[in-house]
Amino acid sequence: MQAYPLKTTPCYKTMPWGGTGLNTIYGKDSPYALTGESWEAASHQNGSTPVQNGPYAGLTPGDLAEKFGESFLGRLTKGKSFPVLFKLIDAQENLSLQVHPNDAYAKRDGDNGKTEMWIILQAEPGAGLFLGFETPVSKEEYARLIAKNKLDSALHFIEAKAGDAFFLPAGLVHAIGKGLVIAEIQQSSDATYRVYDWGRVGPGGKGRPLHIEKALDVSDTSAKGSKADTITVDQSHVKITFLPSCPLFGARHMEIRDCFHGQTRGDSFHILFCAEGEAFVSAGGEDVLLSKGDTIIVPACAEDYTVKTTSAADCAEVLCFFVPDFKKDYEKPLTNAGIPLDVIHRLYKDKQA
Asked: Is 194 assigned a catalytic role?
């Protein structure tokens, strides 16, 4: 496989709670009046993000996984399927109260389970998230709250600000509140069970489908979410914030002031998203411009790559997602930076509740 930086083509999703922010903030080209999501790195039956540059133009991450296997995906991904989905979310209104299943349950619907993590990119004052229950409730009380359209009154609400991260295991009842722009990394899944949609109706006067029975099956009514721990290390040319990790995905937020040297080590592909500024991503002898709003996938076989700011940008903010080896990707660099192991281990999350 040629190990050059693969710039992806977004897959846009219109949603009743969406807006125009992804076009105006990140230069997207969604044709929809209300765009809720821009899938940036995906290969799923409900949407894919083809490569737009070089000899692999037109191929999706799934095509590359099938064609090149470990060379593209890395040693840590089993099989030949692209294992994650990275998207941007523009919530101009509240999303539905919903829950995602684990792998075993989602298999009934022909999908994967969905564990996910959110990184807040922009937040209006007072905006926040519904994350689990304020106090545990029984399944019977849960069903009663749903039937009376009062579920939101029992949920835990957390204000969110730019830079915050939240890890959501499968089974956690949740909703994104209005006024937030979010980067989401998740399993490759579109399995969502809505339980309340704030009384919204569509053009035909009908609401979106709810999935009450399935939600009752998979919801953890004792779970309560919280803001995730992060660890920041400030080096000479880059400030790196290590975000939570689970067996499915790891993540870093980088403020690159000059040049960042990345390593895939053949372990995993790296997904790079530019939230601010611009930079050149260099791998396999090719340089590709990563502008604000762009997403690039670096194949695992690249081994090494660099992200260097352009003359037009003093700093580039870049999110990096990958399949992690916790010891190599978290313990080693953070212990070298003097961080105690017990603090580092707070970043490790179980895959699912």
From this structure: yes
